[in-house]
Amino acid sequence: MANAPRGECDVDLPVFRAFVERLYRGYASTSSPHIHGFMRSLLITSLILLESAGTPLALKPEHEEAFREERATLTRAMG
User: Domain of life of the organism in this record (predicted)?
Assistant: First the structure.
């Protein structure tokens, strides 16, 4: 990662996408509320970043529905 203007940073998009895919697989592979709680914020933020980079990650329908409101709220907050 390299520093960019306004406090942003450049990200190696294929590497970041692979990270998010593995994070999501881990999330989707368990029903543990503790693991879901631990991973949820990072996962939702990461999904928003991928979407804004033009490479959204497809989710299972039940997760898409469960994340919809949080994603919308966080997307607005992130600008």
Answer: Bacteria
